[in-house]
Amino acid sequence: MSNFYITTAIDYVNGSPHLGHAYEKVLTDVIARFRRQMGDNVFFLTGVDEHGQKVQQSARAKGIAPQQFCDEVSQEFRDLCAKLEISNDDFIRTTEPRHKKVVCEILQKLYDKGEIYKAEYKGFYSTRQEQFLQDKDRNPDGTWPEIFGEVTEITESNYFFKLRQYQDWLVDHLKTHEDFVFPRYRQKQVIEFLKEPLNDLCISRPKERLEWGIPLPFDENFVTYVWFDALTNYYTAVTEKPGFWPANFHVIGKDILVPPHAVYWPIMLKAAGIEPPRSLLVHGWWSINGSKMSKSTGNFVDPVAFADQYGTDALRYFVIREMSVGQDSDFSQTQFLARYNADLANNLGNLVNRTLNMTNRFAGGVIPEADAGASGELETELKTLWEKTRDEVITLNEGFQFHIALERTFSFVTATNAYIEKRAPWKLGKSAEPADQAALKTSLATMAESLRLANALLYAVIPGATAKIRDVIGAKTESNWRDELVWGARLTGNKVAESAILFPRPQTKTS
Fold first, then answer.
1. What domain of life is recorded for the organism (predicted)?
2. Alpha helices (H) in 14-153, listed in sequence order
3. Contacts made by residues 141-146, CB under 8 angstroms, sequence distance 24+
4. For position 510, what pLDDT does the model report?
5. What is the model's pTM?
6. DSSP assigned state of 508
7. 375: which of 191, 256, 379, 461 fits an S-S bond (Cβ 3.0–4.6 Å)?
8. What pLDDT does 511 receive?
């Protein structure tokens, strides 16, 4: 059994969770569940980033202490994980003592090695982004992009990390580790970024300007700036878990690839004598109804409320089916309902209800044993399709092509429903002919087995619904998932439920 360590980015607590947060957690959860199915010993981390000037300002605006503010918003992200059935093994907060301890140890180590120095800095500062800016960050007309908000010129002493001296090492690392960033074209963006000389990295803020942070272990008058605080969380969580570092994948959005995760983070680790992560998995952004997501304009999806209305599995299914990992995608109510009705309700839900209904109607609610003599070309075709589907889905999942894997799985569900139409067990059940009765048993057994197998492929994406399907047909979870994917007669003799409503028709208007 191999260790497999996967993380999400930690979410900044200056705002409530949105669709982008939900997608990243579901995507990472799907990977974690799939790797567990494949036999890996998985450790899955998510959490929140709680320090910084924006948190300090937001807490003051509400008239509460920063820690209380963080506690309240952090709980929203925990609640999101619970609502979306995220199977994380740990939830880290950067205000926890275990995290502060590791941050201080790394900073002190680097300071003792001479990798951190103090210098006076004069330049432009963006409060909104909490970062110093350079002239290259300006618009062509000399103004500052709106993303930076109010920009002021300041002069102050700070501590700097010798980032620049590791630039050549990082370029070489990227060239010798071509799978460091997925999708691969994102790696080219990192290499392009590194064609310009790096500046050393300012890693502190004076306490007179920012109190809400981890004090530098070598100078109590300064606190740690975001990068040596937030990025270190990935390492903090497994310092007491030997064998999990380096991380197999950090799952992040494309906006924080360069420079934080692809430049600062590996260089910080290299300087500290710690192995860099194996890979960064970079996903795209969601638009809403074709426009940029914005809470202020109402173009916004509250993932918890949406899951409450339509079901957690429906939301999980849609975001994984609709987005190709690495690309951008659009979330619309119309497209969601189309997927919901076509795939979940009319296809999978229909197969479940047909299986239960006809097993109860023609076999006393007990799944019969297939009659080998009655198995013909239709059954052979379906079994052959299953083997092809199973192998393709595993390969696609290993390459993070979950949207295509789902398409293949539902094609098999469609083929099973088509098999039922051709076999027409409702007609066979009216006949007293022994051959028809044998064909009836075979068709009922085939329907149930096809449902069991398709269900086994869907577990990582819709865990709640698949658990219910297992229950209503009496399927058991095997210790070895690959054993579950072999066509057989495991369900023979199982008592099935009378009915199951997994995906009720949404009572809503399309938009």
1. Bacteria
2. 19-37, 53-62, 66-83, 97-112
3. none
4. 43
5. 0.95
6. -
7. 379
8. 41
